[in-house]
Amino acid sequence: DAGITxxxxxxxxxxxxxxxxxxxxxxxxxxxxxxxxxxGHGLRLIYYSAAADITDKGEVPDGYVVSRSKTENFPLTxxxxxxxxxxxxxxxxxxxxxxxxxxxxxxxxxx
Amino acid sequence: xxxxxxxxxxxxxxxxxxxxxxxxxxxTNFRSLLWYKQEKKAPTFLFxxxxxxxxxxxxxxxxxxxxxxxxxxxxxxxxxxxxxxVYLCAVEEGRGSTLGxxxxxxxxxxxxxx
Lengths: 111, 114
Fold this sequence. Notes:
The complex is a heterodimer of chains A (about 110) and B (about 110). Chain A is an all-beta fold and about 110 residues long.
């Protein structure tokens, strides 16, 4: 199916564990983004990518790692999860100079 | 400090009312302003504004940008219960052809009662 998908949709993990959130888009958009959404903060940019093998930090990158070996995938890894990383994570993609299209989100709980 | 400030944070109206949502911003290299609607899931795109004074319209929704005063409004006329959602304003900052970054406001929670 065309579009942007995220997996898993829900994840519960424990403090200190490594977690990887997956994002896949079928539009061949060059730009991809990871946001987290928390009450009182709105959507905040974690990392973004202009193309395969090109990534850059957003507003809140600490504790996260990304990679982009293929245009269509943009995984986000929490190397050692903390309770403060409990959030809803949205992946988005866009062609240049166009609006971003958001995935369905992953609700992550860190116990 | 927030680069994008939305007001009000929440609004409760009755069906048929007209509402105006506000978004003010402060970024160095403004490229565009976007409005999204979020209904307990992923944000969905409404409008992208790049030029001052040009109203964009889609059905009962309309939006306009003032780049001199650094704000935008989103109007919804004849509101319906299906308009209940969080409305997000985002401002894209970027130079030339480089990838722009979006800064989001905290959103306005609109509730429309029947």
